[in-house]
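re: ur question from yesterday

yeah so i grabbed the chain u mentioned. its 193 aa long if i counted rite. heres the sequnce exactly as i have it in my notes:
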Amino acid sequence: QKPDDADLKRKLSGAAPPLLWRADAGYVYDGYQQSVIRTAEHNSYLQIGRQFSLGGVKPSLWSRHEWQQHFQATDNTYYLGGSIRPVNPIAIQAESGFTQTPNFRPTQQYFVRADFLFSRFLIPSIGYKYLSYRDGPVEIVMPGLRLQAAAWVALKYEYSNSNNIIGTNTESWQSALDFQFGENLSGYAGYAE
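ran it thru and got these structure tokens back, copy pasting raw so excuse formatting
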């Protein structure tokens, strides 16, 4: 399109500035059919975030509260996090969480992830999480891959390897199909083992 194109001018005049504040809420239900102790468990969260306009680095900050009901007990965890793109093509996300009186959650947790935005189609990532429980630490390394099939749908895969308190390692994976419905609504369907 040319700079004097009437259709381009119409689109630009109707463009809205990016949203600076964002609120997210969610709910997850887990059903266990082969367990007497764990039957129906759930998590919910509320997150409020703010994006800032500082050149091309696109920093953002957020605060989140999670309410988790597992093992017939309830924990409340509070998080503070942020993200930034210090240089192209790297995006970094970091988060810290705290549970004051944990029943099953760690007292403290720290998370950092780097996404490598080499292409719009295929985005590799690497993450690290440190969890501090009363009995000792757990460290998790999480390489991942995001396949952006179209502007409105993406497939994510993440592998996890955790070094547990008792010295063993646990491997797991998760995948999710993310959907973007316009500017204000998104959702996903996922599976993990």
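noticed a couple things. The longest strand covers residues 73-87. also The helical segments are 6-13.
anyway ttyl
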